[in-house]
Design brief:
By secondary structure, the protein is α/β, with parallel strands linked by helices. The protein has a single domain, classed as Rossmann fold (3-Layer(aba) Sandwich), CATH 3.40.50. Helix content is about 50%, strand content about 15%. A five-stranded parallel beta sheet has the order 2-3-1-4-5, with helices on both faces. The radius of gyration is 16 Å and the shape is globular.
Length: about 180
């Protein structure tokens, strides 16, 4: 089987990370995330790793070096990963998929859930500084930020769509169907 590259796109807390973890554990997939580069830069310069700072550094890098800068890094990283399945977490812009589409066996998967379900997940996981203190209104406002504005448009270009509003069994079953389709080719 040749390498399959799965790009995951979806709004905040829709289940991209959970899908990545499931594919890693069940199918031996390996991941690369757009946010990894941003987190590394913030860590190196001693700034808090939070959503606001990641958006700022992303904007500065893309405005300075081109909208497709992070996509170029991800394509290079994905190509170097030694695994039959590579998961690219955090696709959010048209520029992100421009180069990924050039990879053989690249598939874009959209993941979504209701805003209330996603909000509760964000509070529970508390991944970034300040997440647990946000209101639902602040959560919804965050999704209008520059970094997330293109997500709905990119989701429309997906090869597969997963509804993650239900329980784990339903979520995993949808993932298994997609992986089976792709590995049986």
């Amino acid at each position: 089987m040749s390498k399959i590259v799965l790009g995951l796109v979806g709004p905040m807390a829709s289940g991209k990370g959970a899908m990545k973890k499931y594919i890693e554990e069940k199918y031996g997939g390996r991941d690369c995330r757009f946010s990894t580069v941003l987190r590394e830069v913030l860590d190196r310069v001693g700034e808090p790793i939070n959503r606001e700072n990641m958006q700022k550094i992303s904007t500065v890098l893309r405005q300075t070096f081109g909208e497709d800068l992070l996509a170029k890094v991800i394509v290079k990283d994905a190509g170097m990963i030694d695994s039959n399945i590579v998961i690219v977490d955090g696709v959010r812009r048209e520029a992100d998929i421009k180069y990924l589409k050039e990879l053989e066996n690249f598939y874009l998967i959209a993941i979504n859930a209701s805003p209330e379900v996603r909000y509760n997940r964000m509070i529970e996981r508390n991944e970034n500084v300040g997440d647990k203190d946000k209101t639902l209104e602040q959560f919804m406002t965050d999704q209008q930020a520059e970094a997330d504005r293109e997500i709905p448009q990119v989701m429309k270009k997906a090869d597969f769509t997963i509804d993650n509003s239900g329980g784990w069994d339903n979520f995993y079953a949808q993932i298994d169907v997609i992986i089976k389709k792709l590995t049986d080719k």
